[in-house]
What does this fold into?
Amino acid sequence: MAGQAHHFRRYAPKIEPDESKLAYGKERYTNEVGRLYGVLNRRLAERTGFQKGFALGAELRKPLDENSEKAEKTRKVLFGQKPV
It folds into this structure.
């Protein structure tokens, strides 16, 4: 949907200079993207697990101790393995 909104808002005016022909597409897709982002924001606000990503990001700023258990778990998450 966002791709459609970008098309009508940014690229289509270069192809079709008559704004009246583009108004429906611009309005429809822009409103739909806004609706979808609203749904996404509400759903993410309900979840607490996403905050773990911030903690992982904070850990990446620090050097990992080669032999620590925490470093091993972080490496597994980074490389797509489920932590034990």
User: Anything to note?
Assistant: The chain has two domains: 2-46, 49-84.
